[in-house]
Specification:
Blueprint lengths: L4 H25 L3 H30 L1
Helix pairs in contact: 1-2
């Protein structure tokens, strides 16, 4: 069965959640301050994408 837009959006949400978890783990092990800043910036961007994706999934579920 082929996925619809909601299915793809939900899958994207799951992937972003996994990316957030992995970046949080990376912050626990990073030693270099420059790398820490890069990871923190990436984490912020993933969290923003996660918020947007969550809104999209909610809207698609209501449609």
């Amino acid at each position: 069965m082929q996925k619809n837009a909601r299915g793809y959006a939900q899958e994207s949400y799951t992937s972003l959640t996994n990316a957030k978890d992995q970046l949080q783990q990376a912050l626990q092990t990073v030693e270099n301050d420059g790398n820490r800043q890069n990871i923190e910036q990436s984490l912020k961007m993933v969290e923003q994408a996660l918020q947007q994706c969550s809104q999209t999934v909610s809207q698609l579920e209501q449609a």
